């Protein structure tokens, strides 16, 4: 998993509440277990018209936001079913950070396991960031995970809180497998001692 230390990029505004995982990645895209290629299905029902053509009115289709790395969204982001394809689709599109006032628990935890930083802020802070994100090509935010700070295009900053263990994992690019591998020597030592003391169980 890629480390997340500091991210500077275009922030796209999506002022919609209760965006569920089916809106993030419709069920038609759940036939694969590959993590790549799902970016094309991100918000598919909003990004594309019924005939398959691109909807020019959807924010991620607008020229200024087509390479967005940050999403500023309404309350209760990621609710609904617990599909891990949702963070996979965000990541494959290029989004590494989602900012909202609240997230569904399963989606929130899945983000950390996939290298995405979900940030919870107050409604007042979200309103400010939503305004920043509405500036088109000037909607540049910097998310500094080391200092737990978001800096806007005008230089103003907002602090945020994060569980220290989750912060450690993102800063070091550690998913569940990575955390286990960190204990590799201890695991090998235990197995060697266990085999020596119980050879019949080997």
From TrEMBL:
Listed EC numbers: 4.2.1.33
UniProt keyword terms in alphabetical order: Amino-acid biosynthesis, Branched-chain amino acid biosynthesis, Isomerase, Leucine biosynthesis, Lyase
Pathway(s) where this gene product acts: Amino-acid biosynthesis; L-leucine biosynthesis; L-leucine from 3-methyl-2-oxobutanoate: step 2/4
Enzyme class: lyase
Gene Ontology terms: cellular component: 3-isopropylmalate dehydratase complex
GO molecular function: 3-isopropylmalate dehydratase activity; isomerase activity
Domain Aconitase A/isopropylmalate dehydratase small subunit swivel: residue ranges: 1-123
Catalysed reactions, semicolon-separated: (2R,3S)-3-isopropylmalate = (2S)-2-isopropylmalate
Biological process terms in GO annotation: L-leucine biosynthetic process
Keyword Cell cycle: no
Transmembrane feature ranges: none
A Pfam family per the record: Aconitase_C
Alphabetical list of PANTHER family matching this protein: 3-ISOPROPYLMALATE DEHYDRATASE SMALL SUBUNIT, 3-ISOPROPYLMALATE DEHYDRATASE SMALL SUBUNIT 2-RELATED-RELATED
The protein's assembly and partners: Heterodimer of LeuC and LeuD.
Function: Catalyzes the isomerization between 2-isopropylmalate and 3-isopropylmalate, via the formation of 2-isopropylmaleate.
Family: Belongs to the LeuD family. LeuD type 1 subfamily.
Name of the protein this chain belongs to: 3-isopropylmalate dehydratase small subunit
Organism: Rhizobium grahamii CCGE 502
Gene: leuD
């Amino acid at each position: 998993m890629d480390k997340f230390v500091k991210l500077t990029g275009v922030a796209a505004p999506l002022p919609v509440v209760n965006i569920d995982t089916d809106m993030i990645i419709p069920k038609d895209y759940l036939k694969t277990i590959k993590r790549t290629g799902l970016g094309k299905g991100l918000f598919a029902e909003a990004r594309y018209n019924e005939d398959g053509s691109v909807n020019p009115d959807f924010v991620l289709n607008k020229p200024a936001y087509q390479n967005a790395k940050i999403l500023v969204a309404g309350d209760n982001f990621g609710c609904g079913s617990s599909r891990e394809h949702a963070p996979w689709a965000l990541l494959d599109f290029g989004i590494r950070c989602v900012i909202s006032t609240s997230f569904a628990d399963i989606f929130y935890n899945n983000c950390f396991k996939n290298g995405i930083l979900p940030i919870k802020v107050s409604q007042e802070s979200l309103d400010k960031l939503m305004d920043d994100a509405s500036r088109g090509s000037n909607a540049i935010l910097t998310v500094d995970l080391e200092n737990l700070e978001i800096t806007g295009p005008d230089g103003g900053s907002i602090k945020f809180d994060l569980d220290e263990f989750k912060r450690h994992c993102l800063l070091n690019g550690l998913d569940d497998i990575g955390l286990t591998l960190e204990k590799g020597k201890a695991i090998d030592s235990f197995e060697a001692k266990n085999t020596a003391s119980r050879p019949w169980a080997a």
